[in-house]
Amino acid sequence: MENINLNIITEDHVAGKWEVKQRVVRTSNEKSPFTTSQHIEIENGIYKSNNGKECTGKLIVVREEIIFNTQLKFYENDAEVANAIITRLYSEDDGNEKIYHLTLYFTTGLELVLQKIN
């Protein structure tokens, strides 16, 4: 297992198609577009999420001096719809290829554990 330094994460690290492997919803009135998503696709500053309907918007990778971890800010129609802190990014070698795992913690309390689909 290889942990990727959270301070150096770029959009290239999170680009690709991700499958939701685990979800923790900490509040019953969760309004995030990712609450029921099964897949999230990120490429070239754009994200797509399917939560019964497909949501598409802009994604910005942000690093602040106050918060060590890299953040992902999700927008639809120029309005921010979600903000997530990357709490973990690592890869495992299964013998044939590397499998990437990404953990996002949203400001609403939603936590998603994603696995990259190759």
What's the mean pLDDT score?
89
Number of strands: 9
- Taken in chain order, the helices and strands follow as EHEEEEEEEE
Cα distance spanning the termini: 18 Å
Strand percentage lies at: over 45%
Oligomer category: single chain
Q: Helix proportion of residues, in percent?
A: under 10%
- Give the CA-based shape: globular
Described by strand count, sense and barrel closure, the largest sheet is: 8 strands, antiparallel, barrel
What structural class should be given to the helix and strand makeup?
A: mainly beta
Please state how the strands of the largest beta sheet are arranged side by side: 2-3-4-5-6-7-8-9
Total helices: the number is: 1
Radius of gyration: 14 Å
Q: Are there runs of 5+ residues with pLDDT below 50, and where?
A: none
What does this structure look like?
Strands 2-3-4-5-6-7-8-9 form an eight-stranded antiparallel beta barrel. It has 118 residues and is mainly beta. The two termini are 18 Å apart. The chain has one helix at 11-14, and strands at residues 2-3, 16-24, 39-43, 46-50, 54-62, 71-76, 79-93, 98-106, 111-117. The longest helix is centred in the first third of the chain and has 4 residues, at 11-14.
